[in-house]
């Protein structure tokens, strides 16, 4: 059983939902990332999504764009991101790590070289925003051969007819984008999320995480009522952007509050 | 050359060999499916095609003439240079061929709002023009740096009723404008049609932009017979994303004996690294803006900033079909530097009384080099893709002249 499967099956047994925070690797500087990952886990993270910085983050709003720019100002490379995961693994053998980013850095490294290095570093899943199922066949095959899950996005616009191809290739969990827009947008409509998730569950057996537009304990609590996992990104990256002072403690405290609200959600 | 006599690209999912495809976030996948299906219906709809042709004739002023640049050819002392005068189109460039086609598609799909990205501002102007013509709301994304260096076109777009949004992220040029247009589209995908200006982006854009631009090459095939009784020995066009080039190349792909030569922006020179010539500089394939293509990038897959005197060629990628034509060796790709383009710009002004766009000046620069090596009975057809009025402030600035 993979680390991701183990997390979801343990949580399911407790009727709890996964909390999945996102930060960008190398933001605000590379030396801090591993400490921040541990801080997220201390706050109650079940899985950590680590952003791989890219020069052209087309699906991201301004907050995560700036995180990428800050990381790239330190010339953070994909190999360095993998080294950060390996360092994180020295003190945390259980929390799954999912890399989230764009196709080109992975393409540049090559699927095989990337997959074997990622597996060796202790990565569990890979979410490539601009690699939809139609183009992902080869990449998914290589990742699977190394025991890595490819995580796919599904969107409000996704028709039922497309769910089959996603279901065939997806591993770990699927990431439902709660709204039409970029990361950090603020127009989450919980009712439409709930009804879409009902449709998704007819076609998918994997756990479903929901992200985009979840900004506080209250919105996390509401999403946790309908989803298997809550993904929080831009709100945390804003915390990083606010300055290094007490950053790890602030991230832990924010997530602990979210965690408490999620666990109080009526089952 | 017999190998290339049958050419049927892309495949149903938009692949030109290993290039092209659909590399976008999930939210946009259904919109691209919808566009592809609607486009297939439209091009098989006689009324749609009749309206497209009517607009090209009466609104754009097509067919554009082909002109024998006799004085310049004599001065060079080699092959004869002919110019396909896309600069004489309404709005002053080839871009309008595509924006009319796409605006008609937007209208057919019931979209009331169009967005576009622009570098030099030519595609932005062409989009704003058709938006006014068909009564559509129009937002144009333009890198902040380009807004500064192309101010006449910014004002032009505003006069036409478009909103121009200056993009300050990344390198503040064309690629960043395209990122921002994608972000707008993903947010407003139900109401909005994205008019991509070049033969790049996710499928079906490279195909449909090519198809709308092919009117250029189709006309040439008839006009060259009328003018000289045969097809040219070489067809030369500048390549940024490559829409004017693919428009003139594509109808010639299956014609034996016609060399197809794309001219990229050599900037300060390929050896300086300051250029925008992914094909000529043997860049590696990569994925950007929805397609796989040759791409200027560092060893870690980050896109690197490009340089060209011409804002319209200042782009790190190239349309996927050009990458494919390079690989199958049906087209050749070369580069012309900023300096060579400027020299050709002045030549055409002085010898022919035509002020060409700086983009097109790259094609002219290579034609000049090539013509000098060929006998006088050889014919080079250059796509003069746009007029140079928009570049006058840039040229003056470079030459230290206060306007």
From TrEMBL, chain A:
Active-site residue numbers: 49 (proton acceptor), 60 (proton acceptor)
InterPro entries: Aldolase_TIM, RibuloseP-bd_barrel, Trp_synthase_alpha_AS, Trp_synthase_suA
Keywords: Amino-acid biosynthesis, Aromatic amino acid biosynthesis, Lyase, Tryptophan biosynthesis
One Pfam family hit: Trp_syntA
EC number(s) recorded for this UniProt protein: 4.2.1.20
CDD domains given in the database record: Tryptophan_synthase_alpha (cd04724)
Catalytic activity: (1S,2R)-1-C-(indol-3-yl)glycerol 3-phosphate + L-serine = D-glyceraldehyde 3-phosphate + L-tryptophan + H2O
Keyword Translocase found: no
This protein's pathway: Amino-acid biosynthesis; L-tryptophan biosynthesis; L-tryptophan from chorismate: step 5/5
Family in the record: Belongs to the TrpA family.
Its job: The alpha subunit is responsible for the aldol cleavage of indoleglycerol phosphate to indole and glyceraldehyde 3-phosphate.
Subunit structure: Tetramer of two alpha and two beta chains.
PANTHER family: TRYPTOPHAN SYNTHASE ALPHA CHAIN, CHLOROPLASTIC, TRYPTOPHAN SYNTHASE, ALPHA CHAIN
Identification of the protein by name: Tryptophan synthase alpha chain
Annotated organism of origin: Chitiniphilus shinanonensis
Phylogenetic classification of the source organism: Bacteria, Pseudomonadati, Pseudomonadota, Betaproteobacteria, Neisseriales
Gene: trpA
Automatic annotation (TrEMBL), chain B:
EC number: 4.2.1.20
Highest taxon, organism lineage: Bacteria
Pfam assignment, any one: PALP
Pathway membership: Amino-acid biosynthesis; L-tryptophan biosynthesis; L-tryptophan from chorismate: step 5/5
Entry-annotated residues carrying N6-(pyridoxal phosphate)lysine: 95
Chemical reaction(s) catalysed: (1S,2R)-1-C-(indol-3-yl)glycerol 3-phosphate + L-serine = D-glyceraldehyde 3-phosphate + L-tryptophan + H2O
PROSITE patterns xref list: TRP_SYNTHASE_BETA (PS00168)
Keyword 4Fe-4S: no
Ranges for domain Tryptophan synthase beta chain-like PALP: 61-386
Cofactors demanded by this protein: pyridoxal 5'-phosphate
UniProt-listed InterPro entries: Trp_synth_b_CS, Trp_synth_beta, Trp_synth_beta/beta-like, TrpB-like_PALP, TrpB-like_PALP_sf
Stored SUPFAM superfamilies: Tryptophan synthase beta subunit-like PLP-dependent enzymes
Keywords linked to the UniProt accession: Amino-acid biosynthesis, Aromatic amino acid biosynthesis, Lyase, Pyridoxal phosphate, Tryptophan biosynthesis
Keyword Amino-acid biosynthesis: yes
HAMAP family: Trp_synth_beta
Record's subunit section: Tetramer of two alpha and two beta chains.
Role this protein plays: The beta subunit is responsible for the synthesis of L-tryptophan from indole and L-serine.
Family per record: Belongs to the TrpB family.
UniProt name for this protein: Tryptophan synthase beta chain
């Amino acid at each position: 059983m993979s680390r991701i499967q183990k997390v979801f099956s343990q949580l399911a047994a407790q009727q709890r939902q996964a909390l999945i925070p996102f930060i960008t690797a190398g933001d605000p500087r590379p030396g801090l990332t591993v400490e921040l990952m541990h801080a997220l886990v201390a706050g109650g993270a079940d899985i950590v999504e680590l952003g791989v910085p890219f020069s052209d983050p087309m699906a991201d709003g301004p907050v995560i764009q700036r995180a990428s720019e800050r990381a790239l100002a330190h010339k953070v490379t994909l190999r360095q991101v993998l080294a950060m995961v390996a360092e994180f693994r020295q003190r945390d053998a259980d929390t799954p790590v999912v890399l989230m980013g764009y196709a080109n850095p992975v393409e540049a490294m090559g699927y095989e070289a990337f997959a074997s290095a990622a597996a060796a570093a202790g990565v569990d899943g890979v979410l490539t925003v601009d690699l939809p199922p139609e183009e992902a066949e080869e990449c998914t095959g290589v990742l699977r051969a190394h025991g890595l899950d490819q995580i796919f996005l599904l969107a409000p616009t996704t028709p039922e007819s497309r769910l089959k191809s996603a279901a065939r290739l997806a591993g770990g969990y699927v990431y439902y984008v709660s709204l039409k827009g970029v990361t950090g947008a603020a127009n989450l409509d919980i009712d439409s999320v709930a009804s879409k998730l009902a449709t998704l569950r007819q076609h998918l057996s994997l756990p479903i995480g929901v992200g985009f537009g979840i900004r506080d304990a209250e919105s996390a609590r509401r999403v946790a009522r309908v989803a298997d996992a809550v993904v929080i990104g831009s709100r945390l990256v804003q915390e990083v952007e606010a300055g290094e002072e007490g950053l790890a403690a602030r991230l832990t405290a924010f997530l602990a509050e979210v965690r408490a609200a999620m666990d109080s959600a009526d089952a | 050359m017999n190998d290339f006599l049958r050419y049927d690209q892309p495949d149903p999912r938009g692949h030109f060999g290993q290039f092209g495809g659909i590399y976008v976030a999930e939210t946009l996948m259904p919109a691209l499916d919808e566009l592809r299906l609607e486009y297939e219906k439209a091009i098989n709809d006689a009324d749609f095609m009749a309206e497209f042709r009517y607009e090209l004739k009466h609104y754009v002023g097509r067919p554009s003439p082909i002109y024998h640049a006799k004085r310049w050819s004599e001065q060079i002392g080699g092959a004869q240079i002919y110019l396909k005068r896309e600069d004489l189109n309404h709005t002053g460039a080839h871009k309008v061929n595509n924006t009319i086609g796409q605006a008609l598609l937007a209208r057919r799909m019931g979209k009331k709002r169009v967005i576009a990205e622009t570098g030099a501002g030519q595609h932005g102007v062409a989009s704003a023009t058709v938006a006014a013509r068909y009564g559509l709301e129009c937002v144009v994304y333009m890198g902040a740096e380009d807004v500064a260096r192309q101010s006449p076109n910014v004002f032009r777009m505003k006069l036409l009723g478009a909103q121009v949004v200056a993009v300050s992220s990344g390198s503040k040029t064309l690629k960043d404008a395209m990122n921002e247009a994608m972000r707008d589209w993903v947010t407003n995908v139900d109401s909005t049609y994205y008019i991509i200006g070049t033969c790049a982006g996710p499928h079906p854009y490279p195909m449909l932009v090519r198809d709308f631009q092919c009117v250029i090459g189709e006309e040439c095939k008839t006009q060259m017979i009328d003018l000289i009784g045969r097809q040219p020995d070489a067809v030369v066009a500048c390549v940024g994303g490559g829409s004017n080039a693919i428009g003139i190349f594509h109808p010639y792909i299956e014609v034996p004996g016609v060399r197809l030569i794309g001219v990229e922006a050599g900037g300060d020179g390929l050896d300086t690294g300051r250029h925008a010539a992914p094909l000529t500089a043997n860049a590696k394939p990569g994925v950007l803006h929805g397609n796989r293509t040759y791409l200027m990038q560092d060893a870690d897959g980050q896109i690197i900033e490009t340089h060209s005197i011409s804002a319209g060629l200042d782009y790190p990628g190239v349309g996927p079909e050009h990458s494919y034509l390079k690989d199958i060796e049906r087209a050749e790709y070369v580069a012309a530097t900023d300096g060579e383009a400027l020299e050709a710009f002045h030549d055409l002004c002085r010898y022919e009384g035509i002020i060409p766009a700086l983009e097109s000046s790259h094609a002219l620069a290579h034609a000049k080099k090539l013509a000098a090596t060929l006998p006088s009975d050889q014919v080079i057809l250059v796509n003069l893709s746009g007029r140079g009025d928009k570049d006058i402030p840039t040229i003056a600035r470079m030459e230290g002249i206060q306007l």
